[in-house]
Design a protein that fits this description.
Layout: H1 2-23, H2 27-31, E1 58-62, E2 66-68, E3 72-79, E4 88-95, E5 98-103, E6 105-107, E7 114-117, E8 126-129, E9 137-143, E10 150-161, E11 164-170, E12 174-177, E13 228-232, H3 236-239, E14 244-251, E15 254-261, E16 268-274, E17 283-290, E18 293-302, E19 308-310, E20 319-327, E21 330-337, E22 340-343, E23 346-349, E24 356-362, E25 365-366, E26 369-370, E27 376-379, H4 398-424, H5 439-466, H6 476-495, H7 505-532, H8 542-568, H9 575-588, H10 597-600, H11 609-635, H12 639-648
Parallel strand pairs: 2-12
Antiparallel strand pairs: 1-3, 3-9, 4-5, 4-8, 4-10, 6-9, 7-8, 10-11, 10-12, 13-14, 14-15, 15-21, 16-17, 16-24, 17-18, 18-19, 20-21, 22-23, 24-27, 25-26
Bound molecules: 2-acetamido-2-deoxy-beta-D-glucopyranose.
C-alpha cells in the first residue's frame, strides 16, 4: 500500500521533470525538426541522446494500401494503445526498395498542427510538428507522385519526450499503381490494427505481401513453387479457400512462416510443428490480435488428457514478427523463426528434423493461451523437411469416416429396425419359423448382431485413429462410450436369458428392453453431437436429416403402439386373439398372472398383419434412405466442398 503510494509519487516527480525538460528551449522539439534530420531522421536532442530501441508505442497508419499516381491519402500517427500522447514527429515516405529516396509530397494541414519540410530540395516531402504540446494523434494528407510506380513506406521519428524518441518507425507498405488501374484495385480501407515490424535496419523484401480478402489472395501464389503451403479444410490450397493456412518460405537458414485466416471471426491462427501429427509436445507459433496489434507467441502443447498450448517456459525470442495485419477480421502474420529452438529439454531443429505441420484456428482466447481450435485444425499427412517445397495434404481421415459410417448403419439402421421387429412383430409370421426360431427373433437377432459387430469395430477404429481420449469439448466421446458399453453387454445378457417360463424371465425382458432402448436413444444423441465435432467436418444441416429420421421413427412407433392398445382394449372382433395379445404383451413386459396365455399366443397372427407388414416395408425403405444419405454425408465430408470440387473439375 505505502510502497505503491511512494512509487506513484516518484513517478509523478519523474513525469514533471520530463515535462519540464521537454519545455526547455531546445530548437528541435520547440519548432519541429530542422531540415538536417532529413536523411537520418535523428533529432538533435542535446546531441548524443540515443533513440529508444524498444518496440515503438506509436504506429503510422495509412488510409489505403494501394494508391494511384497523383492521388492523395491519409497518413495518421497514433499511439499504441490509442490515446498515448507524443510531443514531436517527422514523417516522410520512402521508396521501399531504396530507403534513402524520399517520395511524394504532403499537403499542409489546415489547422496548423504540422508544417512542411523541404528535404533534398524537394518541396513539402516531409512533415514535422509545429509545437511540442502533447498530441494523441496527427492526421496528414499525402500526395503520391505521378512519376513513380512501386512501393513506399512511411518513415517516422516520434518523440514522446525530449529524451525519449523512436527513429525509423515504418508504416505498412503502400503500393503506387497506374491511375487507370486503381479502379480495379479496391481502395482497401486500412485495417483496424497493424503492427509495425520490430525496429532495426529495414530490409526491403522482394515479394510484396498484399493482404486482401479476395479470391486472388497472393498468399496462395507460388504455393508449391517457392513455398510450402498447408491449411484446412484439406485441399483448400488448390481451391484457394482455406479457413486457416500457413506458408513456409526457406532461404538458406532463414525460416519464414506466414499464417492467415480465411474469414472474419477468428481470435487466433496458429501453426504447430509436430513429430507425430497429434497435439502434444509441439512447438507452436501463434498470431493473436490483441489491444490493437497482432501479438506473436510461441507455445508448447500438452497432449491428452489436459490439452493445452502453454507459453510459460517457452523461449519467446526465437521467433520474430516481421509483418502483421488484421483487415476485415482476417488475421495475417509473417514470422521468422530460428533454426533451433529448445523447449523444455526438447530440441526443435528445423534444418535437420522433419515435422508435421498442424494448422489451427479458433474463436476464443484464454488467459495466456489460445482457446480451443473450434474453427478447425488439420495435421499434415507425413513429416516433412521444411526446406523442401512441396504440396501437402492432410493426414488421412479414412478411419474417421469408417467410424462414422459404421455407427450410422448400426444405430440409425439395424438397431431401429431390430427394435421395431422385437416390439411389434412377435405375433406376425406366426407358425413360419426359421430353424425352429420365430421369424421376429431371427431378424431381431440378425439386426442386433450386425449392430453389435459394427459398433465394436467402429469403437476400436476410433481409438486406433485418435489414439487417446478425444480432446474436443463435446460429449460425443463419453456418450458414445456409454452406448458402446451397453451395446456390448446386451447380447451377452440375451445369451444367458432365462427360459421363457422361468420366473426370472420378466426381469430379463425388462432389462433387455431397457438396455436396448437406452442405448438407441443415447446413440442418436451421440450422433447429434458428432455433427458438432470439428474433426468430423459434418454440415450443420445434417441435424435436420437426423430430426427427420427421429420423427419418422417415432411416428411408426406410435402407429404400431396404437394398434397394440386397440388390440389390448378389445377393439378387434376376435376375443380369443385379443386375449392372446393381451397375455403376450403382459408377459413380455413382466406381468405375472397370465402366464397361461403364453402357449396360445403363437397360434395365429395378430390382426391387420397385412397393414403392419406394409408399414414395416415402408419403414425399411425410409431407414435405408436415411442410412444411405447419412453415410454419404459422413464419408464424403466435408460434403459441400467435395461437391464444389466435383463441380469445378
Ligand atoms: C527510415 O529512416 C532511417 C534513417 O534514414 C533509415 O535508416 C531507415 O531505413 C528508414 N526506413 C524505411 C522503412 O525507409
Amino acid at each position: 500500500m505505502f510502497a505503491h503510494k511512494r512509487s506513484s509519487l516518484a513517478l509523478s516527480v519523474v513525469l514533471i521533470a520530463v515535462q519540464m525538460l521537454s519545455w526547455t528551449p531546445t530548437m528541435s522539439l520547440r519548432q519541429g525538426a530542422p531540415e538536417t534530420v532529413c536523411d537520418t531522421m535523428l533529432p538533435f536532442h542535446g546531441g548524443g541522446i540515443p533513440p529508444r530501441d524498444s518496440l515503438p508505442p506509436f504506429r503510422i497508419e495509412t488510409s489505403s494500401s494501394v494508391i494511384g499516381q497523383g492521388q492523395t491519402m491519409r497518413v495518421d500517427i497514433v499511439g499504441v494503445p490509442p490515446g498515448l500522447s507524443f510531443a514531436g514527429f517527422v514523417v516522410q515516405a520512402r521508396n521501399r526498395n531504396s530507403p534513402h529516396q524520399i517520395i511524394g509530397q504532403f499537403n499542409p494541414p489546415s489547422d496548423g498542427s504540422a508544417k512542411l519540410m523541404n528535404c533534398e530540395n524537394s518541396v513539402g516531402n516531409s512533415v514535422t510538428h509545429t509545437n511540442p504540446g502533447p498530441k494523441q494523434s496527427v492526421s496528414l494528407e499525402w500526395l503520391s507522385p505521378v512519376d513513380f510506380l512501386g512501393d513506399v513506406v512511411f518513415n517516422a521519428t516520434v518523440a514522446q519526450a525530449y529524451d525519449s524518441f523512436w527513429v525509423g518507425i515504418p508504416s505498412d507498405p503502400v503500393q503506387i499503381v497506374r491511375r487507370d488501374t486503381t479502379d480495379t484495385y479496391p481502395q482497401t480501407t486500412r485495417k483496424p490494427y497493424v503492427t509495425p515490424p520490430p525496429r532495426g535496419p529495414y530490409t526491403p523484401q522482394t515479394e510484396v505481401p498484399q493482404v486482401r480478402a479476395t479470391a486472388e489472395d497472393p498468399l496462395y501464389a507460388d504455393c508449391g513453387v517457392s513455398k510450402t503451403c498447408f491449411g484446412f479444410p484439406d485441399g483448400c490450397i488448390a481451391t484457394k479457400s482455406c479457413k486457416a493456412m500457413s506458408a513456409i518460405t526457406v532461404r538458406g537458414d532463414v525460416y519464414e512462416f506466414e499464417l492467415k485466416t480465411g474469414s472474419d471471426g477468428a481470435a487466433y491462427v496458429a501453426l504447430g510443428l509436430s513429430e507425430d501429427a497429434k497435439m502434444g509436445d509441439d512447438l507452436v507459433t501463434e498470431c493473436v490480435p490483441q489491444n490493437g496489434q497482432v501479438n506473436l507467441y510461441s507455445s508448447y502443447t500438452a497432449g491428452a488428457p489436459n490439452y493445452a498450448a502453454n507459453r510459460a517456459n517457452v523461449p519467446q525470442n526465437k521467433a520474430r514478427l516481421l509483418e502483421s495485419s488484421v483487415v476485415d477480421g482476417i488475421i495475417y502474420c509473417k514470422v521468422q523463426r530460428d533454426v533451433v529452438t529448445q523447449v523444455q529439454g526438447k530440441t526443435f531443429d528445423l534444418l535437420n528434423n522433419n515435422y508435421h505441420l498442424l494448422v489451427a484456428s479458433g474463436t476464443g482466447l484464454k488467459e495466456n493461451s489460445v482457446g480451443y481450435h473450434d474453427i478447425g485444425r488439420l495435421p499434415s499427412g507425413s513429416p516433412i523437411n521444411l526446406a523442401v517445397v512441396q504440396d501437402l495434404s492432410g493426414s488421412s481421415t479414412l478411419l474417421l469416416r469408417l467410424h462414422g459410417a459404421f455407427m450410422v448403419i448400426a444405430w440409425i439402421g439395424t438397431t431401429s429396425l431390430g427394435i421395431i421387429l422385437a416390439r411389434y412383430f412377435k405375433q406376425t409370421w406366426v407358425g413360419k419359423q426359421i430353424c425352429g426360431k420365430d421369424q421376429w427373433f431371427v431378424w431381431h437377432r440378425a439386426c442386433m448382431v450386425t449392430t453389435w459387430s459394427l459398433t465394436v469395430v467402429a469403437f476400436i477404429i476410433i481409438f486406433v485413429e485418435i489414439g487417446e481420449w478425444s480432446g474436443e469439448r463435446n460429449p460425443h466421446a463419453i456418450l458414445g462410450t456409454i452406448t458402446t458399453i451397453i451395446c456390448f453387454i446386451q447380447p451377452i445378457g440375451a445369451l444367458f436369458r432365462p427360459a421363457p417360463n422361468s420366473k426370472n424371465r420378466p426381469l430379463f425382458n425388462w432389462t433387455h428392453w431397457l438396455g436396448g432402448n437406452l442405448a438407441h436413444i443415447l446413440s442418436i444423441v451421440t450422433i447429434f453431437f458428432a455433427v458438432k465435432l470439428t474433426k468430423a467436418e459434418l454440415p450443420e444441416w445434417m441435424d435436420w436429416i437426423l430430426v427427420a429420421f427421429v420423427v419418422v421413427h417415432v411416428i411408426v412407433h406410435l402407429i404400431y403402439s396404437i394398434f397394440l392398445c386397440m388390440q389390448i382394449a378389445g377393439c378387434f372382433a376376435d376375443r380369443q386373439q385379443t386375449q392372446n395379445v393381451n397375455a403376450f404383451q403382459m408377459s413380455d413386459m413382466g406381468h405375472h398372472g397370465m402366464r397361461n396365455g403364453h402357449r396360445m399366443e403363437r397360434k395365429m397372427d395378430a390382426p391387420y398383419a397385412g397393414f403392419r407388414k406394409g408399414l414395416l416395408a415402408a419403414y425399411i425403405i425410409c431407414v435405408v434412405l436415411f442410412v444411405v444419405a447419412l453415410v454419404l454425408i459422413v464419408v464424403l465430408a466435408p460434403i459441400e466442398e467435395t461437391f464444389n470440387k466435383l463441380k469445378n473439375n
